[in-house]
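Example 3.2
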Amino acid sequence: MKIERLILVKPILTEKMLKMQETAGKYAFVVDRGANKIEIKRAVEKKFEVTVDEVSTVVVKGKAKRMNTRRGMTSGKRADWKKAIVTLRSGDKIDFFEGTKTK
């Protein structure tokens, strides 16, 4: 089995995902390309101490990029990456901003 910190690369914190967290209890992560749903589920449960009901994964294709530099036009492509959307049991939640305090 892979190490949990290598499976979960980083959380995806966009407006759309923050809304899904509040309404549906779904959280998104950038994960290792070789990780499967079972490994992702175990990694989230172990790292955040929550219960995972469902895991959905999708491989996001990298965008093609063109840049105009001094030497002329160059083209390239961003890397492909894997996204996992994790649904937690009702009542469980993950707080990504737990270290921040407000007065």
